[in-house]
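hey
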């Protein structure tokens, strides 16, 4: 695993109830209401060139239908912490066996336009891990080399209007998949923490 990446992560002992790195921007749009906790797994498949695991959400979901996402979702009352949420959701969505996961650390929290505070958990998964989409939630599971995101030429920046505010956005396009929104922002946070953006 890339030493730069490992050094960029917050340790697993870090509290995960801190505001998102974009908290001030979201307060302008959403006010100061309490954010609901959620977690995603930025899973890196072991191998000569680590691969990042993504899902495509099914078209029949109420929110973010058809979008590319990292496995994860909102915290359940029974979840001990963000890591537990990310592992539970990943098992439910893509059949990832928690025994195949080695948590490495966290990225900075991210506040979403839908009122969640996402804690991204970065982890290695075994090279031979079997992944299978849960058809009720996930239309497809795909993987992208981590090296693709580390190449500055693949980061696209654009501006969008939302509720009268101009928002600076980023996206990546790989193999016909558009990776944007919260997922792209989380990847951007990784790149910034690694000194790559």
């Amino acid at each position: 695993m890339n030493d730069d990446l490992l050094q960029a992560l917050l340790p697993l002992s870090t509290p995960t109830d801190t505001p998102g790195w974009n908290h001030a921007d979201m307060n302008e749009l959403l006010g100061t209401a309490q954010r609901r906790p959620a977690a995603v797994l930025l899973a890196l498949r072991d191998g000569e060139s680590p691969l990042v695991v993504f899902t495509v959400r099914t078209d029949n979901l109420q929110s973010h239908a058809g979008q590319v996402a990292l496995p994860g979702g909102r915290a359940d009352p029974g979840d001990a912490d963000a890591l537990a949420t990310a592992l539970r959701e990943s098992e439910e969505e893509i059949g990832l066996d928690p025994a195949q996961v080695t948590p490495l650390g966290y990225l900075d929290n991210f506040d979403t336009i839908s009122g969640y505070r996402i804690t991204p958990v970065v982890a290695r998964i075994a090279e031979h891990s079997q992944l299978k989409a849960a058809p009720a939630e996930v239309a497809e599971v795909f993987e992208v080399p981590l090296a693709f995101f580390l190449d500055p030429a693949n980061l696209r920046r654009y501006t969008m209007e939302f509720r009268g505010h101009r928002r600076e956005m980023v996206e990546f396009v790989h193999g016909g998949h558009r990776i944007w929104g919260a997922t792209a922002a989380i990847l951007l946070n990784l790149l910034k923490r690694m000194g790559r953006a």
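DSSP finds five helices and eleven strands in the chain. The longest helix spans residues 82-94.
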